[in-house]
Automatic annotation (TrEMBL):
Domain Mvd1 C-terminal intervals: 177-308
Annotated GO biological process: isopentenyl diphosphate biosynthetic process, mevalonate pathway
GO cellular component: cytosol
Protein EC: 4.1.1.33
Coiled coil: none
Gene Ontology MF terms: ATP binding; diphosphomevalonate decarboxylase activity
Gene3D superfamilies reported in the protein's UniProt record: 3.30.230.10, GHMP kinase, C-terminal domain
Domain Diphosphomevalonate decarboxylase-like N-terminal: 8-163
Protein name (record): diphosphomevalonate decarboxylase
Top-level taxonomy: Bacteria, Bacillati, Bacillota, Bacilli, Lactobacillales
Organism whose genome encodes this protein: Weissella diestrammenae
């Protein structure tokens, strides 16, 4: 059968997904909003081949077995089931999401895999169908199908839990400075972290309510190109997500002293009139939402707090592309 290659970009959540109403289908408890990023992406080629006796999976040219391989095989099984085929596949994936960027690669990885595998298996590559399928690999991957600002509608079943674009062409100044605190794999992966928070934080149901109540105002801030409003909501929602982890029993925490130094520096910059806002995911790295015109001022302030700081700049990026070959 023919090989298809898909390219999907990673995304940063401005309104977070942190908990599953259905862990089998990956239906979230909250509607989330993200920005797809241009600089970081995964490119994946898939070919179903009747002569294979098992799936062959390569990530950055290394053959993958064990748990990571199993996640891909489980995903391919879903595609085979939908396509009504039994052939195994060769999957070659190249990640252009450097660990040093401090961003997760599972979003771009499962979005690209959904695109390439669907095309190779001959099932629908309609973007909504791809978002629904990518979601089954990793929740945040549902958003990486689309470019720009994206909303993953929580929904209540497999059909309705899909992402959709809010604004695909971003013609106003917004960027993300990813500050690298650590490039080590996270201590608690997001899957078990969100499960713990959901189960053991007494504030969790209220966090879900507050997050879902922010969907409309955040959409409005995006429509109005209102960086200040958007940033404030994103920082608040991220801090409240991390508060859930600290309120779990036993409590756990992704943020280190260095993360807090950065968060405090960003808040200090705001008091000085610079529009900069922090967001953090399941790790210690801090991502700063800001206007590109303030980059120099922000980096200078960060360097005064943490001299050996490492950072990368990301700008809004496009949705998935799929091609034959
Ligand atoms: C903190 O999408 O990695 O980045 O669905 O279990 O694979 P699984 O989780 P994943 O979780 C992402 C969590 C987050 C927030 C977000 O991206 O919305």
């Amino acid at each position: 059968m023919t090989t298809y290659t898909a390219k999907a970009h990673t995304n940063i959540a401005l309104l977070k997904y942190w908990g599953k109403a259905d862990s089998q289908l990956i239906i979230p408890t909250t509607t989330s909003i993200s920005l797809t990023l241009d600089e970081f992406y995964t490119e994946t080629a898939v070919n179903f081949d009747a002569s294979l006796t098992s799936d062959d999976i390569y990530i950055n040219d290394d053959q993958i077995t064990g748990a990571a391989g199993q996640k891909v095989v489980t995903f391919l099984n879903l595609v085979r089931q939908q396509a009504n085929i039994t052939d195994f596949a060769v999957v070659r994936s190249n990640n252009h999401v450097p660990t040093a960027a401090g961003l997760a690669s599972s979003a771009s990885a499962f979005a690209a895999l959904a695109g390439a595998a669907s095309a190779a298996a001959g099932i629908s590559t309609d973007l909504t169908d791809l978002s629904r399928l990518a979601r089954r690999g990793s929740g945040s991957a549902s958003r990486s199908i689309f470019g720009g600002f994206v909303q993953w509608q929580r929904g209540n079943d497999d059909q309705s839990s899909v992402a959709e674009p809010i604004q695909q062409i971003i013609d106003w100044p917004i960027q993300l400075i990813t500050v690298v605190i650590s490039d080590q794999p996270k201590k608690i992966n997001s899957r078990s972290g969100m499960q713990n928070a959901m189960q053991f934080s007494p504030d969790y149901p209220a966090w879900v309510k507050r997050t879902n109540a922010m969907v409309q105002p955040m959409q409005q801030a995006i429509q109005n190109h209102d960086l200040e409003m958007l940033g404030h909501m994103a920082e608040r929602n991220a801090l409240e997500m991390h508060a859930q982890n600290m309120m779990a029993n036993p409590a756990f925490n992704y943020l280190t002293d260095r993360s807090w130094t950065i968060i405090n520096t960003v808040q200090k910059l705001r008091r000085e009139g610079i529009l900069a806002f922090s967001t953090m995911d399941a790790g210690p790295n801090v991502k700063i939402i800001s206007d590109p015109k303030d980059t120099e001022t922000i980096i200078h302030a960060l360097r005064s707090s943490v001299p050996d700081i490492q950072y990368q700049i990301a700008t809004p990026g496009p949705g998935i592309t799929i091609q034959q070959g």
